[in-house]
Amino acid sequence: MALTKEIKELSIKRYKEERDWFKLNLEGAELLGTEEGELSARLLRILLESKERVVDAVENDKPFIGGYFCNAPEIFTSMGLPWFMVMETPFLAASAPFILQDIDGAEEMGLGGDLCTAIRLPIYYIENNMMPIPTCCLGLIYPCDGAPMLHQVLMHNSNWKNVPLYSCDPPYTSDERAVRYFADELREMTRFIEKHTGAKLKMDDLVDVCERSNQVYTNWQEYMEYRKNVPCPHGWEMGGAQCFAISQCFDVGNPKSVAWFEQLIKVGEDRIKKGLGAQSKEGWKEKVRLFWFDIMPYGWIFEFMPWLEEELGAVIVNDMFGNFPYSLIDTSSEEAIYYDLAKRNLVDAPMIRQARGTAENFAEDIRRIVKDYKVDVVIWPGHMGHKDGAATVGIMRETCRDLDIPFLHIGLDLFDKRYTSIDEVKDKVVTFLEGHGFI
Amino acid sequence: MSVFDAYIEKVVEYVEALRTRGVETKEFTCLEAPDRIRDGLPIQVGPNAHRGIILRSDTYLELGNPLAGSCAFVLWTDKPSLVSDGKVTLLGPDIQESAGGSLPFAQILIVGGEELSDKDHESLVQHQYVSDRIEGYMIKSAPDRVWSRVSKEAAEKGFDFETLGKALMGIVKSEEPRVQAMEIVFVTTSKEDVEGLANIAAQIRKISKEIVKENWKIRGYDIECASDCSSCAEKLVCDDIREVISVKKRKKREAKAAGAS
Fold this sequence. Notes:
The complex is a heterodimer. Chain A is of the alpha/beta class. Chain A has helices at residues 5-32, 35-59, 73-78, 88-92, 99-108, 117-127, 147-156, 176-197, 203-226, 240-249, 255-273, 301-312, 334-348, 352-355, 360-372, 387-390, 393-403, 422-435, and strands at 65-67, 83-85, 136-140, 165-168, 288-292, 314-319, 377-380, 407-409. Chain A has a 4-stranded parallel β-sheet with strand order 2-1-3-4, with helices on both faces. The N and C termini of chain A lie far apart (62 Å). The relative contact order of chain A is 0.12. The model of chain A has no long low-confidence stretch (mean pLDDT 93). Chain B is of the alpha/beta class. Chain B contains 8 helices and 9 strands. Chain B has helices at 5-20, 34-37, 121-126, 152-157, 161-175, 191-195, 198-218, 235-260, and strands spanning 25-29, 59-63, 70-77, 87-91, 102-103, 105-112, 137-139, 148-151, 181-187. The termini of chain B are far apart. The interface between A and B is large, with 43 and 38 residues.
């Protein structure tokens, strides 16, 4: 059954508001007059272009995709299909002015307060017709307690129930057999997309996108090497979050993304040569190097991160999304491309890497990052939605004890500052860093 | 007997096969006491010996870029007699001969000590990634391989594989007192030669995962989900996932059947 004009218009309303909020951010970034400001502006322009493509698709009845997380976007990008991530708002626009109101709305619907906010919000948007309704939708059946609920909503909501849904099944293990299985899932996903959008995958186009994507990932790795420098050339404002978003979320394999990373490397290199740290203010010093082992606290990032860096000299040198275990895609054959895409999305990408399989990735990543990035303190923020990680806090703590590195477990909601107040988080961090003699 | 003993033999056989093929081979010896190994090296070795990073523009040579070929692993044994202590074998071109390039790179560390056991495994493996401990040498953060850079400054000072081998021996022997013997093999000939070790590396990774799992178990942690489903609080979540999968498979079957009829 075709959607009415009214339903379609309503479904795109919030998406447009989000787009306009990013436009406002772009105006702000353009006024900064710094190289980092220019980087932010270029990133926002790429993001806005991807949003405009989705708006155009809705308004002009063109096929587009509701994607999930770690669905190998190289595939549908190479098919020329506009797409957005179903969980896009909490990840990209969590500091938008309407987020707290939306979280309240989700609670009023009866969604449990212990359900990950990044899951609650898309459920709320879908149930209230506040999300673009795609031609077809992609899911991922991974063991996050909220994910099955979101998938059920995708299947049963009255406006979405006729939207075909294909959910890849990521296996528990990370060995070759598992990667091959997931590669087959991605092949099946490709056939599904072709069937429901009418678009056809051309191998030459996929090779082009993967090769540009390889350039992006090569530059990203180079930049992450720069963050090992003491002092770290950038802090929270520029790092894993931006690199991940631009390489995996907006427009994969876009030449503009390649150029963005080249500029990022140039800016990072310049700062290292000048001996500059995360803050350029006179008298400011990097006092403690942190590994923030989760997503950044997007819902209240501006109220916490500048304080952490400016007041305490505490610099986040790496975070879960900056962690770089990626390998490049071998584009020599279709078989190799699907295998490497499967590995990247199943084994390498953050959250799926940690949440899906054995807990050793938590310990191994901490060991390597602490050593390589000269980390002084590991912070496990303890996001209420990351119950998989909550089960491994003991392993993380033991690993840090082995390394003789302090480990701080906070307990908070990365998207909702009312769960644990920002003052309380600040208090915990200050007490901890003071107690260990860093500040 | 250590689980890796058989793989030490395989590596020895692999090296012999390359030699027989006529691959250019160099051997260095390093039999000094751990605290003396670093003496006479052209660069500093030890914590913070290399505080900064090596930018692309300051790089003399890159080793183990995955596109060029890359492989690294550590083998340990409780039979030191299986290890030719102090021996560094280089198969292929040396650093000084390869300015501005990118060499394929395999690095195999073989250590022996009568008291070595599974408990030492993770620590020994971590020694492959030397972080900031060798001046003019930087390892990039890439899992399961050593992908590194040698700086122009270090190369000017004479940094070569003898230096790298001795530096690694100095680090491992001084930080792991139970290590009595250590041997290193570097391969830089070709991508094919480096990838010829991939099968051994894959086996080593599997064994390594098992050892890590057991080590955590001894400490009271199960890193794998091996609990009894009937008593697991998350059973409902798993049941939901199974249901979604079975619906998906049923739909697929139905679609196939409809297509066939």
